[in-house]
């Protein structure tokens, strides 16, 4: 961004130099004052400050706007973009799975319904976005069901929306929050010995689309405190999800 400065008149600014001249006599020196135009002084200051500003701005931009890489599965018929520094994890049970190498609770995956047991024509077969949101949340809670004593989950649907993407297809977007609580000593006899603590607090974002008579679901999992910082980037990932016709 260009910075415009008003034209300044030249002023004399006395600057004292403490360096000794070759003509110093008997170990004593006198600093000779000289004048520098204010415009030159301003230019010097800018030449020192601008590189620091540019580096700081570039670092901030790199931190908050990660590079997104496109993943295309032409065999199963979908594509999306994801942070380029995320790594693929095989054997995770999903059709594709990537996770953040540093925030292990942050990941993205795609689930596809079985072609033999589903005959979806449109995402509206799930009902309204609100009805789809209830089904998504129920599925998450079923997957996270625990047999441990003293474990309980709190959940809520944060938003349900629909949109028509640039491919002309209708997509549903669902956001839910799930918190997990557990006792630190579930086998304790006295109630005061069973202290409840939060295990995790996560945001789950799902994008639903239908193509090839199948239901496709892009899933994003992120800790709630991380989502606050990365939500703009994660929403770009959600908006990038597309389902595509499989060539016969």
From TrEMBL:
One of its GO terms (biological process) is photosynthesis. InterPro entries: Mog1/PsbP_a/b/a-sand, PsbP_C. It comes from Arachis duranensis (Wild peanut). One of its GO terms (cellular component) is photosystem II oxygen evolving complex. Residues 68-243 form the PsbP C-terminal domain. GO terms for molecular function: calcium ion binding. It comes from the Eukaryota. This is PsbP domain-containing protein 1, chloroplastic.
